[in-house]
Amino acid sequence: MSHDPWSQDRYGVRFEWGPAGAERLSRAGGALVVVDVLSFTTAVSVAVERGTAVLPAASHDAGAALARRAGAELAAGRHDVTDERPWSLSPAALRSARAPDRLVLPSPNGSAIAAAAEGVVVAACLRNARAVAALLGDEPVTVIAAGERWPDGSLRPALEDLLGAGAVLAALARHGAESPEAAAARSAYESCRSVPDAVRHCASGVELTTSGFAEDVEIAVEADTTDVVPVLVDGAFRRS
Q: Is the pTM of this model over 0.90?
């Protein structure tokens, strides 16, 4: 069998972007760490802290079907929350609303990657980067920056996810030989003068702030404030 140069399988710590990167690198084995700072994995960290099991789904329609099958609540769009359905991708909403036992949280980025993945899958963000690294120990790790979407559906590499992935990779630096891709992402994080300011003022941060969700950005930049590591078990993220 010929070697796949895209798998980074010669390295213990690897990095790539988006669903296609996750699918390609997952062939190399080990844990898959999904990073979607604004906002899926940050939202998961907040919900799981409060005792909610979070079920990932790639779209609202897929999430609605999953919620019916699983007997779970279904998150609404950020602008569509109601008193009866107060949950969304907004970490601030998840922090203030009552905590359901099970919640389907659809998104086309981090949630879609997690829903399609197999094996050990972990949700990481700036809030729990060190805790994720501590949990994974010395096993092979692939860190995936989810990115965002351009209007045509193509991947938009997102600075906040590069920095979130870099934070995890910095904490993993002694856990195995890094691929060049992983080393570059780690270096981006380590060389950033102020990660919180970069996330606040990058395109995604400005979009959320101008849409009325500045508190979501502030929660996302709470670096290493929790030791909760959401791990996907039987289709739901739960506290490790």
A: yes
